[in-house]
């Protein structure tokens, strides 16, 4: 209430000129009292409780006589309003014991009168006393109880706003940010046009507090900027909070020097000690900031200032409590000195332990990695050794087979060619034709053997080419079966079954014919009676399904998984290189099909393979 004394002087001068000292003196006193109390209450409301009465102002307006008059005339609303202001002023001035006495007296009187507004204001005053004396739990309960009473009354919006602000401040102090945000949201619901400039400034400042504690520094800056144009109009109590919020903002964004400068600017103002509790907190915050900046010596001195202020401000009101606080603070200061001396050693040892731990973990990691690599390498070597041994075995088997497979037809070709070339007339024409047929069959067998080896070598070296074009699979199957029937003396029935009249597929007809003939020839080798059936059908609208079924000796289950391996033979004494089925698999796979042995068929052997109707290259498959 910065202008109250000036207002009183002007008011007395004006009324002294108008009213002579006469019988109208009582009327003048009543008018003055009404005007003064309205001015005090209005200033307190407009400032959201941050404007207060100094000792000089209380004496000048003779507040005790005004309260006595209001009580005698039963103007209890105004009476309790002024008592509430008086208690808040005592708190601001650090006169805590007087605040306690008056708040207890106010609550007792309001309760005895059953005065709702008086009781709510008394609870509000008591909650602030609790806050100032550090009894946060009791303060929170009293705050909430007062708010519940105000909410039940109509027309008390200003008291609700002031109490909400106090609840925000209380919850921020005890770091209950969820509750602080809740009460701030309630406070923000009041329309701005119903608030005074001081109220708007206070609301923006406390919004900035909430945002800073939440970590939203950008939003906090926006609220602080809203207060800038009102800066010159702010009363000291609100200006205090503005400077503190500014200092907190600079600290949150890492501008420690600016934050320290702002704290110093606040501490050097004439109104810094208006709110003794807040002043003490700022001294503490500055000390904590100096610690954060690494300026330990200055922080130590600042903590000393905090202690000195606490002792000088409160020892008159709390002689016992301040003695306890002094003892504790001295112990804390001694602890701080010891901690400061131990800090360097502690950090050094801690750093050494961390470094040693990291080195140990690094060593263990590298050792584990090396062991893992050695195990992997050993495993890979074992796999490669097994593959090499198997390859050597297959190679030896292949060479043995080849020597036998090549020698047998060559001996027949050479022997019967020599007979035909001799001048021996003991052989008739029929015998000579038979010899020629034998030479032809063995030549075909030798040619097939060489072709298989060359084909497999081309596949291995990725040197194979396919001539893909549309072809009728029905016709191709028929030609393959006729070729095998014509080239071999069959003792069993070779049959071709299909319900399709035509089936156009994209394929290399020579390679597909090679697969079919290989499968049919294999079937003739192991089928001594019964039948061999080549079948063509559709497994789905886009896929052809081929099968060769015989009634021969069949393939043992343990051999079915290996039958398509290179140099793998069902019967080591049967003719063949063991490459035919491997080549079939390579051709079918290239055509995007699949080949397998039907393990469910037990009357012989059944080889099945699929072939897509439309060929797709690898690039098209990826798309």
List the helices and strands and how they pair.
Elements: H1 4-18, H2 25-46, H3 55-61, H4 63-72, H5 76-92, H6 96-113, H7 116-132, H8 136-152, H9 157-173, H10 177-188, H11 197-214, H12 217-228, H13 236-252, H14 256-267, H15 276-292, H16 296-314, H17 319-421, H18 429-460, E1 469-472, H19 473-487, E2 493-498, E3 504-507, H20 509-526, E4 531-540, E5 543-550, H21 557-560, H22 580-590, E6 595-597, E7 605-612, H23 618-622
Parallel strand pairs: 2-4
Antiparallel strand pairs: 1-3, 4-5, 5-7, 6-7
Helix pairs in contact: 1-2, 2-5, 4-5, 5-6, 5-7, 6-7, 7-8, 7-9, 8-9, 9-10, 9-11, 10-11, 11-12, 11-13, 12-13, 13-14, 14-15, 15-16, 16-17, 17-18, 18-22, 19-20, 20-22
Structural summary, described in words:
With 623 residues, the protein is α+β, with helices and mostly antiparallel strands. The chain is built from 23 helices and seven strands. Strands 2-4-5-7-6 form a five-stranded mixed beta sheet. A two-stranded antiparallel sheet has the order 1-3. A hairpin with a 2-residue loop joins strand 4 (531-540) and strand 5. The chain starts with a helix and ends with a helix.
């Amino acid at each position: 209430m910065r202008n109250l004394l000036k207002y009183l002087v002007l008011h007395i001068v004006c009324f002294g000129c108008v009213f002579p000292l006469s019988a109208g003196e009582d009327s003048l006193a009543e008018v003055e009292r009404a005007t003064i109390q309205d001015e005090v209450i209005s200033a307190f409301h407009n400032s959201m409780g941050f404007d207060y009465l100094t000792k000089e102002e209380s004496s000048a307006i003779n507040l005790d006589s005004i309260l006595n008059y209001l009580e005698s005339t039963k103007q209890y609303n105004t009476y309790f309003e002024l008592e509430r202001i008086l208690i808040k002023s005592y708190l601001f001035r650090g006169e805590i014991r007087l605040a306690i006495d008056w708040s207890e007296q106010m609550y007792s009187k309001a309760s005895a009168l059953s005065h709702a507004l008086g009781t709510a204001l008394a609870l509000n005053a008591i909650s602030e006393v609790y806050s100032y004396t550090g009894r946060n739990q009791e303060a929170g309960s009293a705050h909430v109880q007062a708010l519940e009473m105000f909410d039940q009354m109509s027309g008390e919006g200003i008291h609700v706003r002031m109490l909400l602000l106090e609840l925000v401040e209380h919850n921020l102090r005890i770091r209950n940010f969820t509750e602080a945000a809740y009460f701030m949201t309630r406070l923000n619901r009041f329309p701005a046009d119903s608030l005074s400039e001081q109220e708007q400034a206070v609301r923006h400042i406390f919004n900035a507090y909430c945002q800073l504690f939440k970590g939203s520094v950008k939003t906090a800056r926006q609220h602080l900027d809203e207060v800038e144009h009102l800066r010159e109009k702010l009363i000291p109590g609100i200006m205090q909070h503005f400077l503190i919020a500014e200092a907190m903002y600079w600290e949150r964004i890492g501008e420690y020097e600016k934050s320290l400068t702002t704290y110093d600017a606040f501490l050097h103002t004439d109104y810094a000690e208006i709110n003794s509790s807040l002043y003490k907190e700022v001294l503490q915050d500055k000390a904590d900031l100096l610690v954060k900046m690494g300026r330990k010596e200055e922080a130590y001195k600042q903590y000393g200032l905090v202690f000195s202020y606490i002792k000088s401000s409160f020892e008159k009101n709390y002689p016992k409590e301040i003695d306890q606080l002094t003892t504790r603070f001295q112990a804390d200061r001694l602890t701080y000195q010891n901690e400061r001396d131990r800090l360097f050693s502690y950090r050094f040892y801690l750093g050494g332990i961390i470094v040693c731990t990291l080195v140990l973990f690094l060593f263990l990691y590298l050792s584990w990695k090396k062991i893992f690599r050695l195990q992997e390498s050993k495993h890979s070597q074992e796999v490669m050794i097994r593959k090499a041994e198997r390859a050597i075995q297959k190679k030896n088997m292949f060479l043995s087979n080849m020597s036998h497979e090549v020698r047998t037809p060559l001996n027949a070709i050479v022997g019967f060619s020599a007979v035909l070339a001799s001048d021996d007339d003991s052989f008739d024409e029929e015998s000579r034709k038979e010899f020629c047929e034998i030479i032809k069959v063995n030549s075909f067998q030798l040619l097939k053997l060489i072709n298989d080896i060359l084909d497999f070598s081309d596949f291995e070296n990725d040197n194979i080419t396919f001539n893909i074009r549309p072809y009728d699979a029905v016709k191709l199957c028929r030609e393959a079966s006729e070729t095998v029937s014509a080239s071999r003396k069959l003792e069993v029935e070779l049959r071709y079954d299909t319900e399709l009249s035509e089936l156009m597929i994209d394929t290399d007809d020579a390679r597909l014919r090679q697969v079919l003939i290989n499968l049919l020839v294999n079937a003739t080798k192991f089928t001594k009676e019964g039948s061999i059936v080549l079948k063509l059908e559709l497994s789905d609208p886009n896929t052809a399904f081929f099968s060769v079924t015989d009634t021969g000796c069949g393939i043992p289950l343990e051999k079915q998984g290996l039958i398509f391996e290179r140099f793998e033979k069902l019967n080591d004494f049967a003719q063949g290189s063991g490459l035919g089925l491997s080549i079939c698999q390579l051709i079918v796979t290239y055509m995007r099909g699949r080949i397998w042995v039907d393990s469910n068929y037990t009357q012989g052997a059944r080889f099945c393979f699929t072939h897509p109707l439309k060929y797709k290259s690898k690039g098209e498959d990826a798309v």
